[in-house]
């Protein structure tokens, strides 16, 4: 038969249980808006009953319960949903990071505009048509020189603007290093995240080792893993021993390359044209991911590939703009007038200085042939377009790429939002639910306290009341 004080201990455990549970509820409510926080709850179990059956045990109606305890503080989490969120983060970042680059490239063209390159190409050939009507007019020749100089200047300015956009993604001063740009900044950020993840993992393992549950540390690590997943496809696996977690990461790969080993870091290397992500240290020592060759692979995703894809698009814009300049120069020269010299890639595309200084030197008798180039195809086999058509196609491509990236980013963001909402429905904090629990634990605490009061009155009667008789 339990002792006189048995009921007091049972009620005390009830009070302690409700106090713990109320503190956990308060922690949830305090972090209801904290990014990455997972709801926690007390795992409540009855304590061992009194007493264990034996041959010498007294006859009782049954085992007396001894109360309740919090066996652990559980973190409400679904790892499968976490994996889905990381994957959607990777897909979304691939398109998101392209938008700003492509929009800046689009702004460099300033089309459609009354003073854009397209309009100046038209004005340039119209000036030659005017000269064909009055081949010896020095004023018209001066207008031709001015129109050509205006066109060359704007094309050079636009080309340089595109170069600035390209360098904002990656600065390649010399091989093999990428010395600046958004790609390098992101790789530096990824390395910083890796250091934080490893430090947190060490702390988590120590907490598990002493039999406790590092819920808040686990949340922080999961948040860091989600941030890391924006750079590329991330695979994560966690170690368990006898069904219990140890906190160790048994797998941490980016683009399939192992990053779990201490000291492993990422670097950007280049051969002057292509950019690769190099993994130094660990089991994949020296392994590389060619970002340039893989940047069109949307199945991999990630902001590193997205940025490189945008950079390659900008390089393509520059090449096509330079194509216009080079072909215009060579086709006019083929008629017999050395009107332009240089090209955009070398930064010296301009009207022949002799023509600028002396427009009268232009051979007006050939003006009609130059004017006819307006309707001529640049290259019937490779570029069956006129200069205006080719430039129009370039502008259409620039705008289409920017809009396409924006539309895909919107789609992927919507998917990510849905998956994140589904995860939050499982792991997130509902203030209404927590307030309901708060009232429940408050009443539980009061009830257990009331039991102690009643037992105190009974003991007072037993001790003081009977003694007085």
Question: Could you characterize what this model shows?
Answer:
This protein has 469 residues and is mostly helical. Among the domains are: 6-76 and 445-467, no CATH class; 114-172 and 313-392. The chain is 58% helix and 12% strand. The protein contains twelve helices and ten strands. It has helices at 6-30, 79-109, 117-133, 138-169, 182-209, 215-228, 291-294, 303-335, 353-357, 367-372, 387-427, 431-467; strands at residues 40-46, 68-75, 234-241, 244-254, 257-258, 265-270, 275-280, 287-290, 340-341, 350-351. The protein has a three-stranded antiparallel sheet. A hairpin with a 6-residue loop joins β7 and β8 (287-290). α2 (79-109) packs antiparallel against α4. The radius of gyration is 37 Å and the shape is elongated. The two termini are 27 Å apart. The model has no long low-confidence stretch (mean pLDDT 92).
Give a brief outline of the structure.
The chain is mainly α and 469 residues long.
Unreliable stretches, pLDDT < 50, 5 or more residues? none
Q: Tell the overall outline.
A: elongated
The side-by-side strand order for the widest beta sheet comes to 3-4-5
Number of strands: 10
Average per-residue pLDDT, rounded, comes to: 92
Strand content: 5-15%
Helix content: 55-70%
Distance between the termini: 27 Å
Q: How many helical elements?
A: 12
Query: Largest beta sheet, briefly?
Result: 3 strands, antiparallel
The SSE order reads HEEHHHHHEEEEEEHHEEHHHH
Class based on secondary structure composition and strand pairing? mainly alpha
Q: Rounded to an integer, what's the Rg over CA atoms?
A: 37 Å
